[in-house]
Amino acid sequence: MINVQSIRSFKALKSVEILDFEGIPDLIDDMLEVYSKSYTDHNFSFRILLPRSKDSQNINNLTKKLGLQIQHDFLIGMRKHKLKPRVRELRYIHDENHFGWLLIDPLIYADIV
Fold first, then answer.
1. How many domains does the chain fold into?
2. What is the pLDDT of residues 15-24, one digit of tens each?
3. Label partner for 87 (CA 20 to 30 A): which of 7, 27, 44, 97?
4. For position 61, which CATH number holds?
């Protein structure tokens, strides 16, 4: 079993909070830049914080859609840059108001798990 506290405290190369679809293009540009720079060193790590609500299923449904769009656009961007997808992911509850999504290189993943 993975220790969620160690995932929350993991120092990613970059962390970004996304609240709506308008922020996704800039997020994808950032992700691709970090991924291409860290690809050969196997040290890619990127944390995305997405909205979470205990009271509103609409917010949680929006978060699912945001996640799917981010995943799709990131994979398309990798193909455009001719990069092979070499990413593991950890999805977790980051805090009261955020879901966390940690994307990391498989070698880093092996060290965490």
1. 1
2. 999 999 999 9
3. 97
4. 3.30.110.10
